[in-house]
Amino acid sequence: MHRRRGATPFFRFLRDTKDSDMVVVFGENAAASLSLILAIAALGLASVSGDPRWDGIGSLAIGAVLVCVAIFLGWRSSPS
User: Fold this and answer.
1) Angle CA(77)–CA(32)–CA(57) in degrees, nearest 5?
2) Of 2, 20, 39, 61, which shows the fewest CB atoms inside 10 Å?
């Protein structure tokens, strides 16, 4: 990907590129990574505090991330 974007900043390249496959792969990978971090944090907080509500909060946060990425990918992939 670095060869394709050259000196263009990463997020500008993602915004301006016509290669929708690359945007979809980046969006899915970013969502998966962020969701994993949220899951680890929520389970850690639930374990340390003994409060299972953190697990539910983590699940809601992961759901919000997935909805945001789906909206972004739908908007980004729609014909202009």
Assistant:
1) 110
2) 2
pTM over 0.85: no
| 50 burial type by CB count under 10 A (0-12 exposed, 13-18 middle, 19+ buried) | exposed
The 10s digit of each residue's pLDDT in 19-71 is 788 888 888 999 999 999 999 999 999 999 999 999 999 999 999 999 999 99
For residues 23 and 17, the answer to whether their CB atoms sit within 8 Å is yes
In the chain, the N- to C-terminal Cα span, in Å, equals: 24
What six digits make up the tokens of 4? 């394709």
**What are the phi and psi torsion angles at 17 (to 5°)?**
-70, 150
Contact 5, 13 (CB under 8 A): yes
Rounded CA separation 45/27 (Å): 27
